């Protein structure tokens, strides 16, 4: 009879442990789900930021190319003007 009481008591303890572990697992699953949602939102925000940054880089790249072309054209014009001045000075002497 004593054996049955001990076995019953241990079985009740194991049952309580299983319930506690089940509750702990449920809480962990909830935390994992929350973290997945949180990370998903963060990844979406980062993806949006990267798209915006890409647009800005393309805009700046285009502006930089425009400025570069203008600088090259201005440099050519200055070279042409210097050459004309040189020719005029040569003819004047």
Write a concise keyword list for the protein shown above:
single chain; 93 residues; 1 helix
Task: Please explain how this structure is put together.
It is a single chain. By secondary structure, the protein is mainly α. It contains 1 helix and no strands. The chain has one helix spanning 2-92. The mean pLDDT is 86.
Strands, helices and their partners?
Layout: H1 2-92
Short summary:
The protein has 93 residues and is mostly helical.
Structural class: mainly alpha
Shape: rod-shaped
Largest sheet: none
Distance between the termini: 134 Å
Radius of gyration from CA coordinates = 39 Å
H/E element order: H
Mean residue pLDDT:
86
Specify the helix fraction band: over 70%
Output the number of helix runs: 1
Beta-strand percentage range: under 5%
Number of strands: 0
Low-confidence parts, pLDDT < 50 over ≥5 residues?
A: none
